[in-house]
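G., the chain you wanted modeled:
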Amino acid sequence: MVARTLDSTNSGVVWDKFHIYQGHRVNTPYIQIGTKRKNPPRLKLEKHPNAIKQALHYRELLESGQADSQGKLSRLCGTPRTTISAYLRLLGLDEEIRAEALNLSVEDERVARLTEPRLRHILGLQPAEQLRQFRALLDATEPHDASRRVR
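Predicted structure as tokens:
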């Protein structure tokens, strides 16, 4: 490889395979030498209003081999890794709760109450207490009642 000088006829080319990039980031000039980054292909991700269905979809993508890890999945679908981890933790809920949540139709207004942050609060409880908290979450009539923990 032979280095060439940078002038108006060959701007951006230093070697045959490398490029030079110049610019400013927050009033700091920089020069970067290298190849252009290629954006990874994005997965078509279904967004479910039901947090349990979303968690199952993430697990399906991981088990099918479309992504090797949660980090890779987060890069492929543009979702933060911590969000994916939080949804996958919801699969630790009691089987009866997951079945009940999956049986709710999309048109059911109670599905909007089954958000990841609300379900996260009942994760660490015993199964009987999880079920009681889950039913209280579904039966809440006011929006602010659903976010309040029942004691």
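The chain has two domains: 1-38, 51-147.

Shout if anything looks off.
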